[in-house]
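Wait, mind explaining this?

_____
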Amino acid sequence: MRIEESSILLKGLRFSAKHGVLPQERVVGGEYVVNVCIDCDLSKAVKSDDVEDTLNYAEVYEIINKEMQTPSCLLEHVAGRIGESILKAFPQVRMAEIEITKCNPPMGADCEGAAVKLRVKR
């Protein structure tokens, strides 16, 4: 068997955080949802069944949580920090796609949220 592609996904991570351009957003905060797809070689783990041969998604979550708790004006900035931190922490990562949704953006629209998606590569 040959594995063509392999990824680790963390989906629907929910955070309360204080991101936004408006001063009130940085005081009160809001709800955010983060999805991450990380491309890395999982072929060794497929055969070994050993956690040491894969990407520890609990460690990935800790990186995301840390960056989400650091206030920023722009979601683009937060996504960039998450991507950079993942690449720095895990040399086996080839690419990471980060999507952050602000669930209730202050724009007067009835919507599911406003989001940014960023793909970072080594």
In short: Strands lie at 7-17, 30-40, 93-102, 114-121. The two ends are 27 Å apart (CA to CA).
